[in-house]
Amino acid sequence: MSKKPGLTVLAGPTAVGKGTVSTYIRDTYPEVWLSVSATTRAARPGEQDGVHYFFKSAEEFDSLVADGQMLEWAVVHGRNRYGTLRSSVDAAIAEGKSVLLEIDLQGARQVKAAVPDATFVFLAPPTWEEMVRRLVGRGTETPEEQQRRLETAKLELAAEPEFDHTVINDDVRRAADELVSLMGLTPHGR
Ligand code: 5GP
Question: Which amino acids does the record list as binding ATP (predicted)?
């Protein structure tokens, strides 16, 4: 199935490595315009405001939503809010850029309702066991948080048929190159 390039949404289960793939794309593919989301969660060490996220207070996030500035937004893992700023994405698309959103499944569904001709890519783990290993291996979340993320991941895996394409994250470079190809660009990651 070929869709017109412009807006591509990458979603997939928790700990499948969406962040790693999008970091690789940020570093390797300047021709991809990677959307920077707003979030109410606190910055992790090394994360920069305006680069990895726009870090917002709950009140600031509320007013962005109230002003209609979010293309989509969701509460992820039952805790913090994350959302895509509509104006910057619209401007990038209008300028003919290849726009990539790395968002959760709830957000992907909202974008599908708003922009049905976008390209929707599901990032899948090679196996369930590998996904669990990655989740636990990250070591940044408590056991309760890990359990909650696994429950979310099971539900998210079932959403694969809603997507136009599936990319298996067996290797970050290979997966990123496949994603870039699906965006209509030439992979050069190797
Ligand atoms: P983290 O807190 O680990 O950076 O991200 C947690 C989750 O939030 C990831 O699954 C990521 O895809 C999702 N996420 C990041 N930005 C957005 C966004 O703008 N909208 C939505 N719906 N989810 C997002």
Answer: 12-19
